Fold:
Amino acid sequence: MPEAALPAPRSKIQTAFRLAQDHGTCRLCGAGEGQRAIGPESYAGSGQELRRCGRCAAVYLAPDFQPAALEAFYAEQYRRLFPSETPWRSEERFFAWRGDRAVARMRLARIAALLSPQTRVFEVGSGFGAFLEALAKAGVTHLQASEPDIANRSCLIGDIRVAFCAGLSAVPPASLDVIVAFHVLEHLPAPRTFMTEALTALKPGGRAFIEVPNLMSGLRTADYVHPAHLTYFTPQTLSRLARAAGFRPLFCGPHPDGGPLADNIWLELERPEAPAPPMGVEAAPQAEIDALDTRLERVDWETALHRNWRRWAKAVAVRLLGTGAVGEWQRWRQWRRLRQAGWAEHHAVS
Ligand SMILES: [Zn+2]
Structure:
């Protein structure tokens, strides 16, 4: 447990981040010893800090928000911190520049061989619905999903029939063939619970496909860390988490598609016919922890708080122009970057 006190509140926005009691335990394995403080979360100034577990090599933010504060964060702060996530004016342009449908087609190609009209698929955190739309186009008719953003979750699914529910715990055990969760796990306060619920909801032999940001390739500056992402996975820590729940990992590594998905991990899991009972998350080899520390130490955590003028400029722009216009500008820049990298052809609106 780090000895240093957490930094004092620095701004008005921070008063919205009400933090829960700091238990000093690892988010993935629960260990209390060897939790190293890496640096403060400076993107939003939440008062949290990034920690690295000396037992299982997990990297995570701590302490948690209070449950009500986490809800308030997504309702009030999230879109101000990430203006590019909010549709503005032309929805068609919004999705074309973000590339939702193009990315959905890339992901679908990875699981298409498993699909038939009878396949029962559940998408956790379906966002605007691009992947559900792709599944329906591929002929899948049994579609279930969870997505807390009720206002936007039907943007791309039109009149496709999707049974929305609260989450995997709401479906009968052993009832699903496929579970997908793209950019969900890193947001969850309890990723172990997610893995256990996914294993329970799958039929024997069922598959889960998970995509999360890859710390080992994506972390370049302190801005990589922000309060929406509570865990920062490596292929090793993600795979360990899945095995602890009883899954058999079939693939876990840097995203095989590269391109716009290059800085992510792709994980494919199978529920064994007779899964082993859940166990603790395994310990990591010391060499892995050392390599992780080297990666983390390359980032300038402390001074990022004081000198990142871009963060300040964005806050001013959001205040003056609104999240809509700032988000549009960010999406255009992202689209331009992808076009320059030769990915523009994947960004046509279908
Ligand atoms: Zn741990």
Summary: The chain has two domains: 1-13+73-84+304-342, 91-278. Confidence is low (pLDDT under 50) at residues 1-14. The chain is about 35% helix and 15% strand. The pocket of zinc ion is lined by residues 26, 28-29, 31, 53, 55-56, 58 (CB under 6 Å).
